[in-house]
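Quick one, tokens below. Sequence please?
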């Protein structure tokens, strides 16, 4: 039900079909995620790397399949010994060799198992990359919303302080206020203008970051939908993460693959058995036995052999034992890395949950602060009109309101980003979880099933081409805000 809620929230911005065409204007979080899913170079690179990992299975299996090769040689003797009466002056030789592995000590079998486990680890890594890219998109999306709001608040503050300075000058002209009041208003206005420039620069930077991850400039961004499937507490989140986090899954699969590598290394101490066949054809072009008297010699011949070859290692200088010990040490390292990954994920989950809860608490307190500061400003202005408050009191009240509003906007951004980071750490922030299945999602199993059984030497794929979009033609971003988006 939570996944449905997320999907319906995203669909509120309009349904997009996942196609290879140019993305539509990204004005909802769903649009931004879909665009990144289709065009982000980090994600495309991870998919290509996984396709390379898939090839490890047919590569490992190739050592256990028959092999066939031929060798053709043409030789012309430019000068022969004067005593050679039968040697041919020209010869063409064709050799064919066929080898069929029967037993390799388990090396091929365990190598294939390790390759399959690494495919599983790679697919988990791809899931992790997808969640990481989506987390970056969400953070970039929320940063644009936050910086637009902060820039708008600062712009409104400049306008208010400009009006306040004009009113202060008018009252100074009629002797109602002092030069100090005017100077205070001028100082606050100058500071507000500096803050506005900083806010606009931050907004431009946030928009450029958005372009980096999403692939095109942001338009008017809608508020994001509620986050689904958030846990009730940190313990529940950690329990889910231990089962579903892609980094943990990848580390576990690598540990299993490293264990198979131990058996592969030890196989070099065991006997190997192979069947073989060989055939040879020679053609002498009527030059064989050219000087022999009354010779009648065939000018071509052929031969063939077949048999079985058993190889039994006796002594290899300690190489197999060293390789096995090396594989055992590597497997030990992967087990420790698995625990390290588990620790890291647990820390991420707990930290993200704590940050999410704290940000939501900050939202509530900041909303109270904004309401109180708004009421306070109105009261200070009213009291100033009857001479009970100074201009400085008004300026301070306006600054307090601005600070509270900025804190509220920032807390909302932090809460959403922390919540999404929590979902990502739990393994619940991928395309299949976010309702981005308006069309065909990328399935790494499709390529794996396509290549796992291939054995033809000339079965190549098409030449590689870049799939992600470039951003060199996007306009340089600035800190301007359309009037309709100002608070």
């Amino acid at each position: 039900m939570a996944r449905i809620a997320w999907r319906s929230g995203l669909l509120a911005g309009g349904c997009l079909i996942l196609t290879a065409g140019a993305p539509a204007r990204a004005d909802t979080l769903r649009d931004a995620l879909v665009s990144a899913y289709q065009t982000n170079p980090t994600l495309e690179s991870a998919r290509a790397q996984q396709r390379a990992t898939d090839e490890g299975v047919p590569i490992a299996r190739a050592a256990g399949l028959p092999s066939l090769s031929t060798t053709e040689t043409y030789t012309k003797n430019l000068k022969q010994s004067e005593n050679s009466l039968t040697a041919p002056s020209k010869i063409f030789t064709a050799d064919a060799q066929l080898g069929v592995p029967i037993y390799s000590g388990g090396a091929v079998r365990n190598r294939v198992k390790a390759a399959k486990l690494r495919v599983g680890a790679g697919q988990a890594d791809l899931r992790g990359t997808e969640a990481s890219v989506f987390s970056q998109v969400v953070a970039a999306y929320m940063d644009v919303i936050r910086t637009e709001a902060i820039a708008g608040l600062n712009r409104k503050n400049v306008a208010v302080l400009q009006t306040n300075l004009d009113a202060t000058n008018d009252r100074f002209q009629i002797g109602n206020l002092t030069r100090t009041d005017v100077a205070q208003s001028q100082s606050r206005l100058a500071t507000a203008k500096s803050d506005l420039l900083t806010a606009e620069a931050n907004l431009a930077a946030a928009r450029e970051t958005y372009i980096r991850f999403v692939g095109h400039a942001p338009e008017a961004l809608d508020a994001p939908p509620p986050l689904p499937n958030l846990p009730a507490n940190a313990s529940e989140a950690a329990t889910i993460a231990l089962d579903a986090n892609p980094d943990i899954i990848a580390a576990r699969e690598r540990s299993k693959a490293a264990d198979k590598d131990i058996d592969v290394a030890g196989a070099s101490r065991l006997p190997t058995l192979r069947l073989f066949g060989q055939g040879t054809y020679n053609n002498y072009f009527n030059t064989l036995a050219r000087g022999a008297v009354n010779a009648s010699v065939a000018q071509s011949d052929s031969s063939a052999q077949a048999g079985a070859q058993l190889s039994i290692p006796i002594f290899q200088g300690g190489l197999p034992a060293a390789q096995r010990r090396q594989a055992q040490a590597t497997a030990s390292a992967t087990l420790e890395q698995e625990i390290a990954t588990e620790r890291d994920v647990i820390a991420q989950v707990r930290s993200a949950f704590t940050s999410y809860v704290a940000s939501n608490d900050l939202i509530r307190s900041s909303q109270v602060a904004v309401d109180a500061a708004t009421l306070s400003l109105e009261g200070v202005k009213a009291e100033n009109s009857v001479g009970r408050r100074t201009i400085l009191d008004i300026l301070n009240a306006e600054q307090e309101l601005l600070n509270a509003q900025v804190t509220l906007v920032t807390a909302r951004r932090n809460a959403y980003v922390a919540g999404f980071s929590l979902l990502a750490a739990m393994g619940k922030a991928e395309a299949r979880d976010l309702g981005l299945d308006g069309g065909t999602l990328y399935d790494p199993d499709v390529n794996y099933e396509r290549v796992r059984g291939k054995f033809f030497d000339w079965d190549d794929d098409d030449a590689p081409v870049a799939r992600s979009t470039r951003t060199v033609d996007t306009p340089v971003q600035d800190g301007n805000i359309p009037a309709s988006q100002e608070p």
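The first helix runs from residue 2 to 11. The longest strand covers residues 90-103.
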